[in-house]
Design goal:
Radius of gyration: 20 Å
Order of helices and strands: EEEEEEEEEEEEEEEEEEEE
Structural class: mainly beta
Helix content: under 10%
CATH topology of the largest domain: Jelly Rolls
CATH architecture of the largest domain: Sandwich
Number of helices: 0
Length: 227
Amino acid sequence: MDNIDAIRSSVITVKSAGLGTKRALLVNTNAHRFNCRDNNFLITSAGGSGSYIGAEVNQSGAQLVIRASTIQGITADISQTAGTLTIGTTNLYSSNANNLGFSTVVQPSTTIWSDPGSLPKGAIRFYRPGTASVSTTEVFIRLSQKCLLKSLNIRSLTGPGISNTDAWTIRKNGVDTPLTVSLTGTQTSNINNNTSVSFQAGDSLSLKVTTSAGTAITDTVIQVDVF
């Protein structure tokens, strides 16, 4: 199914007594495109363990596209388990994508850090927002509303050098998250599109770099999408 809306202007609510696997929308049968717009997908549960996700694609080659909708889950709002999930002008009520990546129709907001020189060798440092030398002191950005961070991207003028790997990690409230990206050898760019991290209003965001002992990297720019 392509370029038509399979579901439009609907409210789909799943009320669970608990346990089991619950989805308001699940695409997992074959490799096709499933389009939705102007919908509300909602899951509620009386409690108990289980998996409760508003919308999920779990089929290699399948595409789930959701526009102008609201999605609310308990385990997660959305999950790009396999295949591709794309959202546009859509509210993820809990700002939770099951720690997985996803795509957006419109370019989301971004946060950028950069260091204009050479990074220290064999060290852990923290970036300052904008352009400035990295610091031994962790520098935090306070987030004013809940959001998802995704698509961590790194570019540099020169790579770390042969046998060297440098790694950048998004941190939440001073703790490492799974959203990381690295450069090895002569690499000068890389992106992690497969991981997302939920932040709540008032949480603190920071960026850590861990360099190898022989790194020769210079002029780094790091960007993360904020949805």
